Amino acid sequence: MSDAKKPQLRRDKGLHPRNRHRQGYDFRALAQQFPPLKRHLLTTQYGQLSINFSEPAAVKALNAALLKQHYQICDWSLPEGYLCPPVPGREDYLHHLADLLAEGGTLPKGTHITALDIGTGANGIYPLLGAAIYGWRFVGSDIDAKALQHLQSVLNANPRIAALVSLRQQSQPQHIFANIIQPGEYFDVTLCNPPFHRSAAEAQQGSLRKVRNLAANRGDKPTKQPLLNFAGRANELWCDGGEAGFLQRMISESKHYGAQVLWFSSLVSKAENLPQCYRWLTQQQAQAVRTLKMVQGNKQTRILAWSFLDENIRQTWRKFKA
């Protein structure tokens, strides 16, 4: 087969227009920037460079390479067993939030914007990307002290980012915003990638589907028994009640901090959870609700955003921050 007839690297047109990964990955350039990636490179049946997305070490190396090449974030790593998030989808979330905060106006950039990342994890992907792309300030919270200690070591290796990010441990796991949002403290937006499984077994099945979809999209051979390629601990991947239970708690608790946050938000992986969320938000008297669709390859998800501030107050907030 001639080069002209070979399938080209898959371009993900579903990603946000500002997402720098819409044209796919340049694995050769990534490996030059981050040499440890070289040992994980392979050639697909279509003759394209790729990695084995069912191999945790390969996925971690890809993330480290992406963060170094595109965001100038060095020495990113993860402790064994912690969630390794795909960078393009996480960047998409931030772009959609920037659009939400802009409300049709100028994109908000700079340290006057403050975001709260619930469950930031050892990877800290949202604060790292948000600080690098938009220059926002971040508070990252988590119940896991070890995860926060590791993320702090990554921040220490990146002083430019560290100056914009602070970390807080949630000492009471039954709470989400309590103990984290302090009196007199205000956030422009909160974000969260909630645990969406009810059990470890359900999480394993989810990983199996994810790996097979990635293999199909990239022309790789399907894996029958993949590892949890994106890894993840119990609090990262599953919890009592699954995604719906977590969202119910988040919405209920957010009401108490409605005057201190312009927009609350969360990823919602399962579309069937949206009607329940709308009912809970109505019960809590949310003044505005937005559902922002996101697409990455064959995967469709959405961001649910809500505010307890009416339109006039939101306009005043934006003018004050402009």
TrEMBL record:
Main subcellular localisation: cytoplasm
Source taxon at top rank: Bacteria
Ranges annotated as biased composition (Basic and acidic residues): 1-15
Key word Manganese present: no
Cross-referenced InterPro entries: METTL16/RlmF (IPR010286), rRNA_lsu_MeTfrase_F (IPR016909), SAM-dependent_MTases_sf (IPR029063)
Subcellular location as annotated: Cytoplasm
Leading EC class: transferase
Listed Gene3D superfamilies: Vaccinia Virus protein VP39
Catalytic activity: adenosine(1618) in 23S rRNA + S-adenosyl-L-methionine = N(6)-methyladenosine(1618) in 23S rRNA + S-adenosyl-L-homocysteine + H(+)
Keywords, alphabetical: Cytoplasm, Methyltransferase, rRNA processing, S-adenosyl-L-methionine, Transferase
Residue span of region Disordered: 1-22
EC number: 2.1.1.181
Molecular function, one GO term: 23S rRNA (adenine(1618)-N(6))-methyltransferase activity
HAMAP family: 23SrRNA_methyltr_F
Family: Belongs to the methyltransferase superfamily. METTL16/RlmF family.
Function: Specifically methylates the adenine in position 1618 of 23S rRNA.
Protein name, per record: Ribosomal RNA large subunit methyltransferase F
Species annotation: Shewanella dokdonensis
